[in-house]
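Example S7 (structure tokens).
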């Protein structure tokens, strides 16, 4: 049974996604970089390390996706111009949006796998042990155990 990300982790992930939508709208529809919101995405990304249990592990799960996102943010923030270059904007948006999607997917996959490792074939002690609860294994976890 998958465990959910911690509440603060949820908040950071949701805020990053929402902020990306705002940056995308400003860049594509108005030709302007919303650098304050780009910086906020970076702050929320840093917050994930403290708020998402799996990112703080010694093996740094999902680090590559987080690094790719930070690289995409820094590339835009370093440019002093607030005007969007129409020839580059699609690649720049992809350099932010794809790592956000990859990072969220990586976290969800690893939370599901962590739950399988942590509570495999067990029920919580408060629950009756007469098999009244069914355990559902996510398809991605079942495939990795083969």
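Recovered sequence:
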């Amino acid at each position: 049974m998958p465990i959910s990300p911690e509440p603060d982790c949820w908040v950071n992930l949701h805020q990053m996604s929402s902020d990306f939508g705002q940056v995308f709208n400003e860049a594509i529809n108005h030709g302007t970089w919303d650098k304050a919101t780009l910086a906020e995405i970076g702050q929320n990304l840093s917050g994930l390390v403290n708020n998402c249990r799996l990112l703080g592990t010694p093996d740094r799960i999902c680090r590559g996706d987080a690094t790719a996102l930070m690289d995409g943010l820094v590339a835009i923030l370093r440019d002093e111009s607030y005007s969007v270059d129409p020839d580059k904007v699609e690649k720049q948006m992809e350099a932010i949006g794809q790592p956000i999607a990859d990072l969220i997917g990586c976290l969800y996959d690893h939370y599901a796998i962590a739950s399988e490792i942590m509570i495999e074939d067990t029920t919580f002690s408060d629950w009756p042990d007469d098999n009244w609860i069914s355990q559902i294994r996510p398809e991605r976890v079942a495939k990795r155990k083969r």
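Notes on this example. The mean pLDDT is 78.
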